[in-house]
Write a structure and sequence with these properties.
Elements (H helix, E strand, L loop, with lengths): L2 E6 L7 H14 L4 E6 L1 H4 L6 H18 L6 E5 L5 H10 L4 H5 L2 H7 L8 H15 L5 E3 L5 H17 L9 E3 L34 H9 L19 H13 L4 H8 L4 H27 L2 H30 L5
Bound molecules: adenosine monophosphate and tryptophan.
Amino acid sequence: MTRILSGMQPTNQLHLGNYLGALKNWVALQDVGENLFCVVDLHAITLPQDPAVLAQSTREIAAAYIAAGIDTAKSIIFAQSHVSAHAELAWILGCMTPMGWLNRMTQFKEKAGKDRESAPLGLYGYPVLMAADILTYKATHVPVGEDQKQHLELARDIAGAFNRRYDVEFFPLPEPQILGEATRVMSLRDGTRKMSKSDLSDMSRINMTDTPELIAQKIRKAKTDPAPLPSNPEELEGRPEADNLLTLYAALSDTTKRAAIARFAGTQFSLLKAELTEAAVETLGPIAARMNALMADTAALDAILRDGADKANAIAQPILAEAKQLVGFLPR
Ligand code: AMP
Ligand code: TRP
C-alpha cells in the first residue's frame, strides 16, 4: 500500500522553492494512494512565533495547498497540532534516538547558529517530530525538496531503531521522493544559497502571492553573469545563477533542463528572463488568486482543517495505540 505524507511550516510566506520542490509534486502524486498533507505548526514553534501570526499563517498554508491543486476529496489536509499522536509518538521515538544522530543534522546547525547553548530543545528534536509525523501514519512515501533528505534518512533510522528495540516489523521505512527539475531552488540574489523563507532580502525569492509586477521586477533584477547562456550542461559548472534560472524555467514550463539549455543556447539572459517571467506569472497568478479567495472565508478553511484532523486522527490513533502497547504502556 502507498501512503503519502508531507508538510510545510506555517512560517513566513511560501515561495517558488516550496512550490516547485514540494507542493507541485504533491499535487501530481495525489492519485497514487492515500495522501496526508499537514501544516506543521508544532515545527513552527521551534523558533519564536507571534501567536496571531502563527494562526493566520496556518490557514494560509492550508489555502496554498488547496489553491495549488490539493483536492480534499482525494487528500487529507490538516494542522499537525490537531492530531496529538504526533507529539506523543515523538516522545517515544525521542527515547530511542541517540543524540549523536541529531548532532549530525545540518539544519539544526544552521538554525541554531553560533550560540548553540541557547538553542531550544524543540529545535534540536525537530527531526524526531518529523519522523513521528511520518510514522504516526505508517506513511510509505514522503515528497520533499532536497534540503529534507537528511531528515528523511534519520526518519528511516529512527523507524529501524524502534523496530529493532521491540523486535518487530512495525514501522515501514519511508521513502523520500525528491522529484522534478527544481529540487533545490536557489536565491535570485546569490546562486550558491538556497531560496529561503528566512532570507532577509525579499528580492531573493518569488513568493507565491507576489503580483505579476513584483515577479517581473525580481526576475529582472536577478543576479546573472556576463557570458551568454551555454549550449550544454557541463558549461553551467561554476555558473550557479545561469543554472538556477534555467532550472526554474524548465520546471515552470514543464520541460527538462536539457531542453531549456538547448532553447536558450548562445542567447543573452534578457530573453531567458522575459520567458521565465511569463512562465512564473502564468503558473503563480491563478494560484495566488485562488489563495486570496480562500483566505476571504476563514470559517470555511477552519472547517476543512477540522474535517482533515478527524480523518487524520482516525488513521493515527490505532497506530499510536499499537506502538504504545509494544512499548509496554498499560491499555486504558
Ligand atoms: P519549509 O518551508 O521548510 O517548511 O519547506 C517546505 C517544503 O519545501 C519542503 O519539502 C522543502 O524541502 C521544500 N523547499 C523549501 N525550500 C526549497 C527550495 N529552495 N528548493 C526546493 N524545495 C524547497
Ligand atoms: N521539516 C520539513 C521542512 O522544513 C517540514 C516537515 C515537517 C515535513 N514534518 C514533515 C516534511 C513530515 C515531510 C514529512 O520542510
